[in-house]
Amino acid sequence: MQREIKEMKLDPPPNCKAAPKGDNLYEWTATILGITGSVYEGGVFHLDILLPISYPFDPPMVRFVTKIYHCNVSRSGKICLDTLYDEWSPALSISKVLLSISLLMNQCNPYSPLEAKIGKLYLLNRKEHDYQARLWTKRYALHKRIALHCIALHYILIIIST
């Protein structure tokens, strides 16, 4: 566990951070920032990580706390990612799991969705899918301070354009 903590402090994956909740080394909290240029840009996505007693021989249980519009994430936050199930290896780490989730956020798999309607929309109407993903990001994942700056900028642009 100490190796995991050190890895997350010294060399975290891009746009990710994680640490144990208090003194409990088996309960972690993580944050993934939406990547610039993606439908999740500006979003701050919080996740819970529960490590089984048998970790690293069994995978962690990871779920999104922040709502996210993604075909591979259920409404309850469950994540459809091979690394968390069949493809788990004791050689993997929390850092690698977060990197995999970050990559999944930007490269979804609509052919193996947890949310079939979102997967179908991704395949049939990408523009509407991306609009909904951005809308959910603004609604559920924008940090309040960022949201206030966006609102202020919106009003400034209205004033300038009139």
From TrEMBL:
<protein>
    <recommendedName>
        <fullName>E2 ubiquitin-conjugating enzyme</fullName>
        <ecNumber>2.3.2.23</ecNumber>
    </recommendedName>
</protein>
<dbReference type="GO" id="GO:0005524">
    <property type="term" value="F:ATP binding"/>
</dbReference>
<dbReference type="InterPro" id="IPR016135">
    <property type="entry name" value="UBQ-conjugating_enzyme/RWD"/>
</dbReference>
<keyword id="KW-0547">Nucleotide-binding</keyword>
<feature type="active site" description="Glycyl thioester intermediate">
    <location>
        <position position="80"/>
    </location>
</feature>
<feature type="domain" description="UBC core">
    <location>
        <begin position="1"/>
        <end position="142"/>
    </location>
</feature>
<keyword id="KW-0808">Transferase</keyword>
<keyword id="KW-0067">ATP-binding</keyword>
<comment type="similarity">
    <text>Belongs to the ubiquitin-conjugating enzyme family.</text>
</comment>
<dbReference type="InterPro" id="IPR000608">
    <property type="entry name" value="UBC"/>
</dbReference>
<dbReference type="Pfam" id="PF00179">
    <property type="entry name" value="UQ_con"/>
</dbReference>
<dbReference type="InterPro" id="IPR023313">
    <property type="entry name" value="UBQ-conjugating_AS"/>
</dbReference>
<keyword id="KW-0833">Ubl conjugation pathway</keyword>
<dbReference type="GO" id="GO:0061631">
    <property type="term" value="F:ubiquitin conjugating enzyme activity"/>
</dbReference>
